[in-house]
Specification:
The complex is a heterodimer of chains A (296) and B (333). Chain A has 296 residues and is an all-alpha fold. Chain A is built from 13 helices and no strands. In chain A, helix 4 packs across helix 12, helix 8 runs antiparallel to helix 9 and helix 10 packs antiparallel against helix 13. The longest helix of chain A has 40 residues. Chain B has 333 residues and is mainly α. In chain B, helix 5 packs across helix 7 and helix 7 packs across helix 9. The longest helix of chain B is centred in the N-terminal third of the chain and has 58 residues. The chains are: A mainly alpha (296), B mainly alpha (333). Chains A and B meet through helix 2, helix 4, helix 5, helix 6 and helix 7 of A and helix 1, helix 4, helix 5, helix 6 and helix 7 of B.
Chain lengths: 296, 333
């Protein structure tokens, strides 16, 4: 690029064959990588807008307040799936937030040496596991002993998926707290636990909340682990010991439905999921100053 | 008078001493309480990971004893005749993932090169935002698009076209089905691309600026900088990122389940065939599973998936972290 922009100096040789070839290769590289970058962006924009366009017309107040329509019926909504997703997210937070947060605290504040490295590796491994395996785990420890699918097991499965995401974000923000702050507080005679709870954690609260939102956005769309735990049904929530519906589960079932009404509902459900996740991403970006800061 | 002063001094002394004891107790208690609470929760997390492995191993014991290694080579997953095997599922998993990486790896690395080397500054932030967003699109939504849009298009337009122009290749022979390995592979390309871009981009930003500048000062073109500085430096990181994406592709469940057809065919190169993967097999048959060998077979399928993804993940982490250590030193031959 810059080679071409340079002015031709009077004493410079005319570009040789080698030089021309190098420039040609350079331009080819630029074109090819540009196309490679356009491709995924174009696909994303196309899919998102296609689903938003298909889905928005079926978003009505009924969608959030009514149960799914009976076969052949044309009104109704996915109220129970929206409700179920919120309940599952709540249950998952109860499990995932403290476990993930404290593992992050351990890695940033206490952990040293081989054991901490082992914990970090294990958390990485957990984040790489296919989520369906965590569904199998929750199924084996909760569904089998209690003889039934339940909201609780679904929440546990989703909560386990939250752990590594929470851990990573908590560790990252805790490491941003300058060591001098901790040392100054300790030098004033403040005990370590007070330094941590009253000084360090409040100073990174926004970072930790960002991490929670990020984790919730990730698990809101999880389907596979819910198949064998929350299971899904078309009734309102009736207790944590009973199956509960979720948006992604309902989308999955209705997508393969032979009835156009239900397919429309699946589009509308996807619309809601995408809006939720985009809203979460924008919030995170905004909260962390990502729109202003130079992306690396 | 004197006495009063002494009493005051004494009481102050006692009060201070009591408070000192209280805070000391408090500090010690608080410190160790917080410490042990942290240890306890970390232990629970480690216990969960161990529990996942234990559940899959102990739960699949019946079929491990019944079939041994034949579980890997049996073609049938047949609860009626009590014969279980996952050969088609392993084939489907590896084939669709290989397809996905074959296309996603070069495109992803190219896109990352564009972002780090050529991209105008004002485009960087929106591009990073969009590629982060693509990572978070729920797989069930991509599955919906694949099932309702991609598969119908493939059966009417895409697959006949491929057959007409590339029908001599073994990949494009057979009857177009729409749903099948090709649709699954294409969905996986879309799913793993942003992951590869994200990791590769991060690795490439670790390349020391001095090295780029040194080469530019020698009169190298941008491409030569990429070819002789960026790519050699980032090689192990790129490999790690691609393997990490492979792990994602191997374990992806919903989007694949929705478009792969879920019907076993004899393993062949034909991309138009339907098939299933390890995870889609679990997702599809779990609802009708009965206790005994059936559930055991499903859990063993999960165990195989676990082993495959564990290997790919650990390998990827090692490769990526090795690069992290290397960049600390600054100069690399």
């Amino acid at each position: 690029m810059n080679a071409q922009a340079a002015p031709r100096l009077p004493f410079a040789q005319p570009p040789s064959v080698v030089m021309r070839r190098r420039r040609a290769v350079n331009i080819t590289a630029i074109v090819v990588t540009t196309l490679a970058a356009i491709f995924p962006v174009a696909i994303l924009i196309y899919i998102v807008f296609y689903i938003l366009l298909q889905g928005h017309q079926f978003i009505t107040p009924d969608f959030f307040t009514q149960l799914p329509p009976a076969f052949g019926d044309s009104n109704g909504g996915m109220g129970e799936a929206v409700q179920g997703t919120l309940i599952l997210l709540g249950l998952a937070s109860i499990v995932g937030v403290p476990l993930g947060l404290f593992t992050g605290i351990y890695l940033a504040e206490y952990g040293k040496g081989v054991f901490a490295r082992g914990v970090r590796l294990m958390v990485d491994v957990l984040s790489g596991l296919p989520t369906i395996l965590l569904g199998l785990f929750a199924w084996a420890i909760i569904v089998i002993p209690s003889h039934g699918f339940s909201a609780l097991s679904g929440g546990v499965a989703l909560g386990i998926i939250m752990i590594p995401i929470m851990t990573r974000s908590a560790e990252e923000v805790l490491r941003l707290v300058p060591e001098s702050l901790r040392e100054a507080a300790l030098a004033l005679g403040i005990p370590q636990w007070r330094v941590l709870i009253q000084l360090v954690l409040p100073s990174v609260a926004s970072g930790i909340i960002t991490g929670i939102i990020f984790a919730l956005a990730r698990i809101a769309g999880e389907t596979a682990p819910l198949l064998m735990t929350a299971f899904g049904n078309t009734f309102w929530f009736s207790g944590v010991n009973h199956p509960v519906d979720a948006l992604p589960l309902r989308i999955f079932v209705f997508t393969e439905s032979p009835y156009q009404v239900q397919i429309n509902q699946a589009y509308a459900g996807s619309f809601v999921l995408i809006i939720l996740i985009v809203a979460a991403s924008v919030t995170i970006r905004w909260a962390t100053g990502g729109f202003r800061r130079q992306a690396r | 008078m004197l006495d009063e002063a002494g009493a005051t001094a004494r009481s102050i002394r006692i009060a201070t001493r009591a408070r000192a004891w209280r805070t000391l107790l408090n500090d010690k208690l608080g410190d160790s309480a917080l410490r042990w609470l942290t240890y306890l929760l970390v232990a629970i997390v480690l216990g969960i990971i161990a529990g996942v492995i234990w559940v899959l191993v102990s739960g699949s014991w019946i079929t491990i004893q019944m079939f041994g290694l034949r579980f890997l080579t049996n073609r049938a997953f047949d609860p009626v005749h009590n014969i279980y095997g996952v050969a088609p599922a392993i084939f489907g998993t590896l084939y669709t993932s290989a397809f996905a990486l074959f296309f996603a790896a070069p495109i992803g690395v190219g896109a990352a090169l564009f972002v780090t080397e050529f991209c105008p500054r004002f485009l960087r932030v929106p591009l990073a935002f969009i590629s982060d967003l693509l990572v978070t699109i729920p797989s069930v939504v991509l599955g919906l698009w694949g099932f309702l849009v991609l598969a119908p298009w493939l059966i009417t337009t895409g697959e006949p076209w491929l057959q007409k122009h590339f029908g001599f290749l073994p990949f494009f022979q057979g009857t177009p089905h729409g749903l099948g390995l090709l649709a699954a592979g294409m969905i996986l390309v879309i799913m793993v691309l942003p992951l590869i871009v994200a990791i590769t981009r991060e690795v490439m930003t670790l390349v020391p600026t001095e090295q780029r500048e040194a080469l530019l000062a020698l009169g190298a073109t941008r491409w030569e900088v990429i070819r002789y500085v960026v790519l050699p430096f980032a090689r192990s990181g790129i490999t790690g990122g691609v393997i990490l994406a492979l792990g994602r592709a191997l374990g992806e469940t919903m989007a694949v389940t929705m478009v792969i057809g879920n019907e076993a065919t004899n393993p062949s190169w034909g991309l138009f065939n339907t098939g299933y993967t390890l995870s889609s097999l679990i997702a599809n048959t779990f609802g009708e599973a009965t206790p005994g060998p059936f559930i055991s077979a499903l859990l063993e399928t999960g165990l195989i998936l676990l082993i495959i993804t564990l290997i790919t993940n650990v390998l990827a982490r090692v490769l990526v972290s090795r690069l992290g250590q290397k960049s600390v030193g600054g100069f690399v031959a």
